[in-house]
Amino acid sequence: MSVLNRAVIVVMDSVGAGEAPDAADYGDEGSDTLGHTAQVVGGLDLPNLQAAGLGNLHGSILGVPPVEHPTMAFGRNHEVSEGKDSTTGHWEIAGIVTTEAQATFTDTGFPPKLVESIELEAGVTFIGNYAASGTVIIDELGPEHLATGNPILYTSADSVFQIAAHTDVIPLERLYEICRIARKHCNDFNIGRVIARPFIGEPGAFKRTYDRHDLAMPPHSLTVLDNAKAAGLSVFGIGKIEDLFAGRGLTEAVHTEGDRDGLEKTLAAIRERTEPGIIFTNLVDLDMTYGHRENPQGYAEGLELIDSYLPDLLDALGERDLLFITADHGNDPTDGDTDHTREYVPLLVGGMNAAGVDLGIRGQYCDVAATIAEGLDLPLPFQGESFLAEVTGS
To answer: Which of 147, 208, 204 minimizes the C-alpha distance to 175?
Structure first.
């Protein structure tokens, strides 16, 4: 019998825990999503994450000091993949390292050859094609989009080809169709994600919806999700997990409308889906709604929401379940920049005999996949060191 029955992974999208050793290579010296957010808002109120050991893994979070007896195992994780994107971060959590950074077009916009080939096949003409904040470019070009019907194209510091459209002008299914066409052409340019960005409202009051859809390149090798599915285990993706893995390695998936919905769906899955396997959740609001918008107060409130669910998540675990709470990258909402930051990320592990275990600084996100693979008797990832014995006592 395998050591684990279920592994539950919850990714707090963008929760960085201090600059990584290679932060300077990405222009992110001094970044600290948790620490700086806490300073700006006058201290974080996270009693359950504090009890879990969040202050033990990061000693400079105002309002979240270390505790003597943490209720979870605690540590920090360092990404080794090239880039600081959600795709590569999630892939590494699942056991594969990306050694070639996906292409970005932050300074130049996308090349005419790519744009024109998509326009020709999709029957559209894009406006924009430059790097911008999503909400800003919608405000800037939304009126022109309403007048012409032309979709808005933009990018960021990440490897993303983003297409925004008002749902009254381009219905969702048509927007998704354009994005599927774009995905085919973006493969030749090594672009990580094509993202549909639907919005509603009137000029001056546009609002993006939760009907966002990410079309990612498929992982370049097998993940722990693939191996779990091949072994006949349940692999349930919650939030944008299905998008980030291009549907690979999942037996079932559900999308969410915000982090409260994601937490509710995760809690329900732990309580109701008792079959062996993996539950994998992405909580996107911290990144999409607060980090990219440079909103530390909102970021603090988003953390408080996650904190409020932690006791129920832990209580719902079975005796052979482990809960892994981590992140995919940072996004410091105080640094004057809307892009991701290269940081350590928290690693909190609950269940079994994990309470109080100091996991230290891990050398790669793949250690999560290695631990789950060993616990579920699956092939180990090419890279990664399991800490199963430390958190199970076996």
So the answer is: 208
pLDDT of residue 383: 87
Give all domains of the chain, ordered by start, each with its CATH number: 6-100+217-392 (3.40.720.10), 112-215 (3.30.70.1250)
Measure the CA–CA gap between 329 and 343, rounded to whole angstroms. Answer: 6
Strands 73-77, 358-362: pairing kind: parallel
Distance CA 118, CA 387 (A): 46
Backbone φ and ψ for 281, nearest 5 degrees, come out as -120, 135
Is it the case that residue 258 has pLDDT exceeding 90? yes
As beta bridge partners, residue 341 has 330
pLDDT at residue 313 tops 80: yes
Structure tokens at 150: 């032309």
* Per-residue pLDDT, 83: 86
- pLDDT at residue 394 above 90? no
Identify the CA nearest to 35 among candidates 332, 308, 338, 339. 332
pTM of the model: 0.90
Instruction: Tell me the pLDDT tens digit for each residue of 111-170.
Output: 999 999 999 999 999 999 999 988 899 999 999 999 999 999 999 888 999 999 999 999
pLDDT mean over 211-233: 95
What is the C-alpha separation between 296 and 336, in angstroms, rounded? 11
- CB count in 10 Å sphere of residue 247: 14
Vertex 76, ends 358 and 257: CA angle to 5°?
120
Cβ atoms 333, 290 nearer than 8 A:
yes
Distances (CA, A) of 75 to 7, 120, 126, 325, 358: 18, 50, 45, 11, 6
Q: What is the DSSP string of 103-156?
A: P--TTT-S-HHHHHHHHHHHT---EEEEE--HHHHHHHHHHHHHHH-PPEEEE-
- Given a contact cutoff of 8 angstroms between Cβ atoms, the answer to whether 343 and 28 are in contact is yes
